[in-house]
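Our consortium's second objective concerns turning raw sequence data into structural hypotheses that experimental partners can test. To show how far this objective has progressed, the report includes one record in full. It was chosen at random from the queue rather than selected for favorable results. The single chain below, 370 residues long, was entered without modification.
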Amino acid sequence: MGRRILTVFLAFIIAGTTLAGCTAKTDINGTQTEAKEGDQKETDNSAAPKYDTLNVGILVGSSAIPVLYARDQGWFEELGLDVNIITFPTGSPINEAFAADQLDIASYGAAGIFAMSTGECTMVGEPNTGGGLGLFVREDNPILEHQGENTVYPEAYGSAETVKGLKAMLPLGTASQFVLLQWAKGFGLTESDLEQIHMEYPSAYQAFSSGEGDAVAVSPPYYFNCIEDGYTEVSGFDQDYYTDMIIARNAVLEERKEEVILFLKALYRACEALTDDEVRTEYSIPAFADLGAEYTEETMAQEITVRKYIDQAYMEQEGYQFASWLMPTAEFYVTTEKLTEDQVDIVRDAVDLSYLEEALEIDLSGAYEQ
């Protein structure tokens, strides 16, 4: 999609939702629906928002839930914010929306690295850890006959011979692709030794379940579906490695600093509330259903074991490091020719914790090692 077409498309979506303020929901097709009755805490809606609309992008995933929870509790409104939430299928169209100046802030995954690499966006927060990523094969795959031969993930299954030529289905440019390529690298293989088929997580899972491909890389809830289906995870990935990202356009950071700080204040208030497993389960299951993702109490309990919300108490733990995965991942993308060395330098500098520090009144000096 060309930039001009994208701009017109996104402008149409945003124009249709701005008037509804933070009570509006917009899906990936641009369909606007009102928040369900009872979703929002009762607030005084007689006063107009203090600020102009903030267009906030989310994915169907854990990183979306604090944004939605803060909206439904009325916490954005309490701070005078007018937050318009737009749901995207993956990180790539979020990056395109940033490039078209049609998005102000987004809560999403590792695809945010590419928005940062343009020099137009900055990482200002991380809402949750990003576990529940994995690469699965069927029980009859010869990959399962080998274990302990991977130099990156010692517990991984496979060998150079059994992995070469693998046909894997996954959304490209995501953390799942990083897992796949790091796994292959551990066998001395490169991206050219694999056949990667770009499919969004729901389609990839359905195709794999129908017998297509040799492997599938997934995130929740499909990660848990694969386990329940009896597929075997082969990647040996450290589930505590990744976090999701809060990204903002630099122009917004410069011109609307106060709003960004207030947004983070409400967002991390939601993160703190969602550290209560009962609150998280009760809210998340219907919220995910509204986004088109089916969760049960069992799959939500599984997700809670691999994905934690990051609140102030989490950050105040000894040894806390902000986005420790960021630079290793950016440097890895150089090896796959997704980024250049110059862009890696841009990513390194595209982190600013001052907004988060002011929002939470916390000292994060030393938390980000460049």
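The partners drew two points from this record. Residues 22 and 71 are 6 Å apart (CA to CA). Residues 3-130+242-360 form a domain with the D-Maltodextrin-Binding Protein; domain 2 fold (CATH 3.40.190.10). Both points have been shared with the crystallography group to help prioritize constructs.
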